[in-house]
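User: If only I could read backbone structure tokens as easily as an amino acid sequence. Underneath my words sits a plain record pairing an amino acid chain with its backbone structure tokens. This is the protein in question:
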Amino acid sequence: MKKILIIICLMLCISGCGFNKMDKGLNALMHKDAGVAFGVIGYPDGKNKFGNETVYFWTLNQTSTMVLPQTSTTTGMVGMTPVYGTTSYNQAVPLNCNCLIKLIANENNVLIRYEWRGNNCGCRSYNDRLGRYYEQTQEE
């Protein structure tokens, strides 16, 4: 089981090399109208009012399965002779994908703060869209 967790962590780290786009893209949205964010990452899943501020939020929670190859080694004795063998098989491992983005807008609907948390498989589509937006803002 330890091998499985190490493999999953390595796969997520390797596939998450561009994961820093979340902060860059969300920073690029600050001081813009909230409607700009809707065009970049889609309409929010909901909103809450707190005093003069509006919190828009996007959430994703899903479970998927990743099939990982495994190898086990068997040792034993046949009479006085040691024997070794390996077996290869695939094991399905559950994977929880989650992401939460909060954009806080002032009374004029201008974005002033953000928060986010999640993992690579949950935030991947948001990360990609925010990365493209950030790159566009750098070209202007």
User: Anything to note?
Assistant: The longest strand covers residues 53-78. Residues 13-17 have pLDDT under 50 and may be disordered.
